[in-house]
Amino acid sequence: MDFNMKKLASDAGIFFTRAVQFTEEKFGQAEKTELDAHFENLLSRADSTKNWTEKILRQTEVLLQPNPSARVEEFLYEKLDRKVPSRVTNGELLAQYMAEAASELGPTTPYGKTLTKVAEAEKRLGAAERDFIHTASINFLTPLRNFLEGDWKTISKERRLLQNRRLDLDACKARLKKAKAAEAKATLWNDEVDKAEQELRVAQTEFDRQAEVTRLLLEGISSTHVNHLRCLHEFVESQTTYYAQCYRHMLDLQKQLGRFPGTFVGTTEPASPPLSSTSPTTAAATMPVGPSVAGLAPPGEAALCLEEVAPPASGTRKARVLYDYEAADSSELALLADELITVYSLPGMDPDWLIGERGNKKGKVPVTYLELLS
């Protein structure tokens, strides 16, 4: 009991001494041991790494899970060391609603068929999103959390110890200075000065040892950057895979809907980043129009007499193909991405289609697969 009381009293005395030293330093009434410039740079880099890691982690969590309530729920499950329950993605939920709507409104109607096709695509998009979230969480979020909850806590602990050792060292310096001043006035014996010098030597040794430990941990931030760089590459790879899957799914859906007569209206922007500021449908409206051809009708309603089709007298336009396109029948022209073809419109044609020519071949081509050139 006496030992514990003495230890508590000693700890209280040390804490009081450090508090006095810290306060006097703040008011400029005591000297402070400064760390070297390299050490200060290491501290600054470590603080920046911690701050930016926190910001990147939080924003990535928002990207992967925009719902704040869901993020809080996942955080609680993680803290309780319990498995987070599987959650339906927004795409999968939309697919479910569309499928149910198609079933109730008529699965054989044009609208019902389109709802079914879009529902299948949305379901695939939802599954791709789920895989992306899972991969990004493991390969990117987890390493960032491990740094903040592991390495950074260790660094912070050692920095606090270093601060305490510095305060002890400067307090010993102050006591020695006072002892020497008193000795000069013959109010203290030499043994008081010797005691202060011994305490200073011990404090300096402990400070140097703690400074070295802290320095080694701070220099380890370079390894943290290398690890985070690798994780960042993996995050980009997973994101690239996800968007590539989404692009393929939507391109397949676009091809399918393009063959549904009267059920699909092309978008005013291409499915991939536009190569031109001119939107396909707007450009199609300004296409040169050739003479009317008897029997011409929108795709699927009547066969196009290709031998009767001729370029309009007012000229034609060049177009760059954005995506590969497989012709559905002999009236269509198969396309390869990035190739150049000649296109024009005819009276009575579906506005989502043009006549395309490549060499001695011609046929209908979907506007949404083209970038019309000036």
Automatic annotation (TrEMBL):
Keyword annotations: Coiled coil, Cytoplasm, SH3 domain
Keyword Coiled coil: yes
One family name in Pfam for this protein: SH3_9
Coiled-coil ranges (or none): 179-213
GO cellular component, one term: cytoplasm
Gene3D superfamilies per the UniProt record, alphabetical: Arfaptin homology (AH) domain/BAR domain (1.20.1270.60), SH3 Domains (2.30.30.40)
Superkingdom: Eukaryota
PANTHER family listed in its UniProt record: DREBRIN-LIKE PROTEIN-RELATED, SH3 DOMAIN-CONTAINING
Subunit-level organization: Homodimer, and heterodimer with SH3GLB1.
Family: Belongs to the endophilin family.
Name of protein: Endophilin-B2
Record organism: Ailuropoda melanoleuca
Gene coding for it: SH3GLB2
